[in-house]
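Quick one before lunch.
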Amino acid sequence: MKNRMKYCIANFKMNLGTQSSLTEYFNALKQNQFSKNEMIDVIVAPPFTVLNNAVSLSLDFNSNIKIAAQNVNENKSGAYTGEISIDMLKDAKVNYVIVGHSERRAYYNESNEQINDKNKTLLSNGFIPIFCIGETLEQRSENLIEETLREQLSIGLLNIREKNFIIAYEPVWAIGTGKTATSEMITESHRMIRNILNDIGFDGQKISILYGGSVNRNNAKELIALSDVDGFLIGGASLDAKHFLHIYNFMKENV
Ligand code: PEP
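Model of the phosphoenolpyruvate complex:
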């Protein structure tokens, strides 16, 4: 189905978080042709400290580049040292937020229930969650892919009726490892996700599902040709603006 919105998303993680590195990155992006009416949204998710600057740079640029935060706290305000609230992200004029990234699940013990609270907070405040799900290598080898995805989706989206979210399927074993899932694995998982979405009250055909996990300029062309893949969430390869643009341009040719 070609009329789902496509996304090319750069997740900087804890990189490129100085004003100078961010400005340099946006200057490199400026070399490319972006048009406003495309079916592809380009989204950059820098660290919190440069979010304001990233929003200003994206506006100066007059392109369709949007800015995402990499996380949000599920509470409105209070004694949560080191955390960032929804009102702070509103003030920074961010539109998207990454939720449930496997690094947050693994290193900060984020649970499916907490991720559900984050999704609810975001959707009720008009943000678009980029909701990450995916199985570990152990779960894959024990044939627990469907069970894992079903649990992540059904708890993560519990009591949510809004449809304005993006799913990023990111098999944990493929993130930052240089091991990309095969086209067959990705197609199988994306179809599974669409079916699970149907089972829990959404229209799986209408929701954009991205792939993430060691996407780079060598494999992006093959992966974007898969009809169930609506774009990418890119970590390592997005840190070099030229690589990121290469991947975006493959997408542009395919939409
Ligand atoms: C990610 O962190 O979401 C990711 C997909 O990273 P990488 O592209 O480096 O595997």
